[in-house]
Amino acid sequence: QVQLVESGGGLVQPGGSLRLSCAASGFTFRNYAMSWYRQAPGKERELVAIIISADGTTNYADSVKGRFTISRDNAKNTVYLQMNSLKPEDTAVYFCNARGIYLMRNVYWGQGTQVTVSS
User: Fold this and answer.
1) Exposed, middle or buried by CB within 10 Å (0-12, 13-18, 19+), for 118?
2) Rounded distance, CA 74 to CA 77, Å?
3) What span, in angstroms and rounded, lies between the C-alpha atoms of 119 and 107?
4) Of 1, 26, 45, 97, which sees the most CB atoms within 10 A?
């Protein structure tokens, strides 16, 4: 079965860094665009970053541009989100998402990992 297993969340002080990981299984990883979403309490889920392939297109929300970097390792079926210069407003549950490049109806979600930025 399809699985997206996330890790790396936690508590960090403002200005600090975290790296989130999402290990994928049960589908052909290289045929999927991978992305990170986040959802803060009382807010809608929003797209943070997306990567089509290891050397392909990336895009970021304006709020994280220049601070976050999305990457993927197709050999390890893993996508990462490097988060630097973290701010309290980055506090949210972060979700890994996979969407088929050729079969876009195929969409999978991870369970989410909590990121808390606080002094």
Assistant:
1) exposed
2) 5
3) 36
4) 97
Instruction: Decide: residue 1, CB within 10 A, 0-12 exposed, 13-18 middle, 19+ buried.
Output: exposed
Give Cα 84 distance to the centre of its chain.
Answer: 14
- Distance separating alpha carbons of residues 117 and 110, to the nearest angstrom: 21
Are the CB atoms for 97 and 34 separated by under 8 Å?
yes
For residue 90, give the nearest of 21, 35, 15 by alpha carbon.
15
Question: Mind listing the pLDDT tens digit for each residue in 45-83?
Answer: 999 999 987 567 999 999 999 999 999 999 999 999 999
Q: What share of the chain is helix, strand, coil (3-state, %, to 5)?
A: 5, 50, 45
| Amino acid, single-letter form, for residue 119 | S
